Amino acid sequence: MFYWGILLLFVIDRVTKLIFFISPSLSGSRGGFISFSINPHMAFSWPMIAWMYYPLAVIILFFLFYYADKSRKNKSIMLWPWSLIIIGAISNLIDRLFYHGVIDFLSWPNFFVFNLADSYITIGVVWLLLFNLPKSKKDDSGLTV
Description:
Structural class: mainly alpha
Distance between the termini: 41 Å
Number of strands: 3
Number of domains: 1
Order of helices and strands: HEHHEEH
Shape: globular
Strand content: 5-15%
């Protein structure tokens, strides 16, 4: 069931990107929350030298798969955030290979334009951070240290 859920999220991301790539005229609809663009940069539109992106992406994906596999073997719920990050990264990598940039279409006013894959990555990272932050301890006075 888990793998079907992850596959479904991946397919939803790919289909929505394809819809906006084929019909960029949908931009500007839905109260300005839809804005088609192809982003040649990295996350948050940070520039990066193009030839560095692919080797870096492969190295990062290797580590992501490693940690996802560890979570799978341990039957850990942490397989979810690792998998969300992986499908987001793979989907954006597919965009870069075929469109020389990432297809973005979701726009938040005065913010970046992004896509579902970016959301998957963000949710996965936040999930990992929240579940892996050290627990705070209270000292004898009851104050959090």
